[in-house]
Amino acid sequence: FYSRSLMLDRLINILLRTIGSFNAKAKVAMSRFEPGTSISYEKLHENINIVRKRLNRPLTLSEKIVYGHLDDPVGQDIARGRTYLRLRPDRVAMQDATAQMAMLQFISSGLPKVAVPSTIHCDHLIEAQIGGVEDLKRAKEVNQEVYNFLATAGAKYGVGFWKPGSGIIHQIILENYAYPGVLLIGTDSHTPNGGGLGSICIGVGGADAVDVMAGIPWELKCPNVIGVKLTGSLSGWTSPKDVILKVAGILTVKGGTGAIVEYHGPGVDSISCTGEAKRYDFSHLLVAGMATICNMGAEIGATTSVFPYNHRMKTYLNKTGRADIAALADEHKDDLVPDKGCKYDHVIEINLSELKPHINGPFTPDLAHPVSEIGAVAEKNGWPLEVKVGLIGSCTNSSYEDMGRAASLAKQALDKGLKCKAAFTVTPGSEQIRATIERDGFSKILRDVGGVVLANACGPCIGQWDRKDVKMGEKNTIVTSYNRNFTSRNDANPATHAFVTSPEIVTALAIAGTLKFDPETDYLTAANGEKFKLEPPNGDELPARDFDPGQDTYQHPPAESGSVMVDVSPTSTRLQLLEPFDKWNGKDLEDLQVLIKVKGKCTTDHISAAGPWLKFRGHLDNISNNMLIGAINIENDAVNKIKNRLTGEYGGVPDVARHYKANGLSWVVVGDDNYGEGSSREHAALEPRHLGGRVILVKSFARIHETNLKKQGMLPLTFADPTDYDKIRPDDKLSITGLATFAPGKPLKGVVKHGDGSQDIITLNHTFNENQVEWFHAGSALNRMKELQ
After folding, report:
1. How far apart are CA 69 and CA 199, in angstroms?
2. Alpha-carbon distance 427 to 692, whole Å?
3. How far apart, in whole angstroms, are the C-alpha atoms of residue 781 and residue 708?
4. Is residue 247 a contact partner of residue 358, using CB atoms and an 8 Å limit?
5. Do residues 450 and 424 touch, judged by C-beta distance below 8 A?
6. Count of C-beta atoms within a 10 Å radius of residue 179
7. For residue 166, which of 81, 162, 228, 433 is within the disulfide window of CB 3.0 to 4.6 Å?
8. In the annotation, is 680 catalytic?
9. CB environment 425-445: b (16+ within 10 A), e (fewer)
């Protein structure tokens, strides 16, 4: 018996050593830049099982990843669209325009290091003027102070730093940091791009990023889940971009608010390719295409979008040097796809075989048109038919396959002796993409057809474009492969009619020079007079010779950062240390002056413009000079012209706000539906707070902006009856009562005081939870964080 027992003990020890060895081997780093981190699919699996048993039902993929990151999966109250979840994201990513304020807030927290892997990406501050090399050189000179601040702050607090020229944040994330099942938050509204690799990637404001970097559970209202069932297969000129253009037309810019969009169905899994001349028949959805669809999901207000894990993702991970992550994902595939029988709150079905190429716009990304109809629609509406500029690239469509497809069309035109009739610009998504398309000849073809290859940066997509070909106010049309086309967004010209479409349609329209061209049916005239049609585009998802990484543009945070100094000059016009906002005084808000009653669409571009204002994103007082300068005043249909009720004179919105603040008069903004849609920029919340605002009262909010306002101690409120918007006059004063018992689910009361002495009593709703009420009491979420330290 003894010998058998000894033998059993030895076998157990051998087995334990084997298991330990296996577990050691199974530890896979989250990225090649962070060897000390590891992916924990085991924890994800454990949490999923806990929640599945609690809810006693199958889970969607979105629920698996989100609930798999719960801080307390056992005790968390879970109800879609109702409860707030406390989550533990895996990592944080910040682009340079929003990272400035995020890092300034983190510095104010007093914490020594970030608690989760975090990165800064320099992509927003590079203005497109001449071409990639020249523009990058100039940006480094002009923005030296900001780049130095971000680099040293990253080094000091343990944040990786991607230097200017490295590429657009979302492409860098896709190539290096996204992986199936990760929960990532990013300080940019198009962070959902990572959903193309099976990730839950959510755009947030800088204050949310600070919470996660500080190791505090991050709050998210439990999202609903919209299912988009894809059937059939794409072919010809139809591309993945057309999927989201179609969805945007169905759901509109606010139809996805409060929801994750989850793509599923046989259209996702049909992955065959034709072999003829390596031409796409698009009967499969590739990673870059899935990322495009998820990226532009921000334009329907979705919290994020996601695709289930599939072998295309595995191939992409292998090709980008992450075979170990692909192998690990394979082992945990059941947790990276939806459960059979799971239920969605709403389902949209799209037959890819019937889908036609689309083009959306102008002035809003949800105005969808088939390409075959846009010429006639433009003529009917008086939109300019001539295409002045075609622009491809941006974070939405700047992958290797996007560039390859565009180059295949450009080559056809060149072979017939043609060049683009419109100006044509090309934005590579990353240094890796730039180097690879240069090596493989795509860049030369695109330049030969008339294109200008810009820096690896956001450029014209976010208004960083020193455009010279039209005068300000001149009516004109541009077509882009971007994601957003609000008034004045790309070039600051309110008369520019911007349309968004796929890179291949942009290229075709740039060659033809007119919106009245349907590449599926219309002919071009070659240099020799011959009529010809463009063949559908072709290209490879991934380069046959692997990627060329190009220049090394990453700065690792040092192991020892005690000697690193982060300086902010008190005389700087670009950077400014933050002062805490004042706490709530315990009283109702009495006699708030209506600063402006906004008419119609009011995006974060209207509230805090980008373009030339980006240079002040690290200086709260200076950036506040752009507050609401794009919003339309209902009193006179003018922008940046409101009446100062103290002086009787008209002035700019920021000027009047400053005058009110200097005279101790707090104020309120009144707005319409989906207020604050668009970018995640928290400056649109910081600026009103800084200039003396207390309340933003609207019919409805976009998700990120509402949260950003709460974070800064503002009161974002909505009309219980949307028609009460009409009761408020531009010269009214408003009192908010009931704040002494301010609590979740309990409406507040508004007393509207008119100039003629009459009053209206209205009910005001809010979405504050208990923690968020504490932010209001403390004056901001950052103030509350300090109170708890």
Report:
1. 12
2. 40
3. 10
4. no
5. yes
6. 26
7. 162
8. no
9. bbbbbbbbbbbbbeebebbeb
List all residues 6 or more positions away from 747 whose beta carbon is below 8 Å from its beta carbon: 720, 738, 763, 764, 765, 766
Tens-place pLDDT, residues 452-504: 999 999 999 999 999 999 999 999 999 999 999 999 999 999 999 999 999 99
45 is catalytic: no
Cα separations in angstroms, 151 against 448, 529, 574, 660, 753: 37, 56, 15, 38, 51
Catalytic residue among 484, 617, 645, 659: 484
- DSSP annotation of 307 reads -
77 C-beta neighbours (distance < 10 Å), count: 11
Residue 165 has, within 13 A of its CA and on its CB side, a CA count of 20
Q: Within its chain, how far is the Cα of 731 from the centroid?
A: 36
Is the Cβ–Cβ distance between 603 and 684 less than 8 Å? no
Closest of 312, 450, 436, 439 to residue 392, by C-alpha: 450
Is 124 one of the catalytic residues? Answer: yes
Please compute Rg for the chain using Cα positions.
26
Planar angle of CA 377, 378, 383, nearest 5 degrees = 150
| The pLDDT of residue 269 is above 90 | no
**Whether residue 606 lies in the annotated active site:** no
User: What's the whole-number mean pLDDT along residues 360-374?
Assistant: 97
Distance from chain centroid for Cα 224:
19
Q: Which of 681, 705, 766, 784 is catalytic?
A: 681
Cα–Cα distance measured from residue 631 to residue 597, given in angstroms and rounded to the nearest whole number: 9
Nearest of 478, 409, 482 to residue 448 by alpha carbon: 409
Strands 733-737 and 748-753, bridge-based pairing: antiparallel
Reported as type and span, the H/E element at residue 7 is helix 2-26
How far, in Å, CA of 203 to CA of 170, rounded? 11
DSSP for residue 534: P
Element (H, E) at 434: helix 431-439
Q: Does residue 484 carry a catalytic annotation?
A: yes
Q: In this structure, which amino acid lies at residue 705?
A: H
Helices in 355-399 by DSSP H: which ranges?
A: 371-381
763 bridge partner residues: 749
Contact call for residues 649 and 679 (beta carbons, < 8 A): no
Both tokens of residue 163? 């230097």
- Model pLDDT for residues 328-351, shown as the tens digit of each residue: 999 999 999 999 999 999 999 999
Pairing of strands 531-532, 524-525: antiparallel
* Active-site residue flag, 556: no
- At position 243, the amino acid (one-letter code) is V
Q: How far is CA 451 from the centre of its chain?
A: 27
| Pairwise CA distance, residues 109 & 535, whole Å | 58
The Cα–Cα gap between 688 and 701 comes to 16
What does DSSP assign to residue 84? E
- DSSP annotation string for 151-175: HHHHHHHT-EEEPTTSB-HHHHHHH
pLDDT of residue 541: 84
SS3 547: coil
**Cα–Cα distances in angstroms (integers) from residue 214 to residues 41, 208, 526, 553, in the given order:** 23, 10, 61, 26
Residue of 122, 75, 117, 77 lying closest to 99 (CA atoms): 122
Amino acid, single-letter form, for residue 28 = V
SS3 content of the chain, % helix, strand, coil (to 5): 35, 20, 45
DSSP letters for 588-642: -EEEEEEEEEB-S---HHHHB--GGGGGGTB-HHHHGGGBTTTSEETTTTEES-E
User: What is the predicted pLDDT for the residue at 680?
Assistant: 85
Q: CA nearest 699: which of 720, 668, 678, 728?
A: 720
- The pTM assigned to this predicted structure is 0.91
Tracing tokens 């959805």 back to the chain, one arrives at 285
157, 119 Cβ separation under 8 angstroms: no
Beta strands 524-525 and 638-639 are unpaired
pLDDT above 90: residue 278: no
Tell me if 239 sits within 8 A of 502, measured CB to CB.
Answer: yes
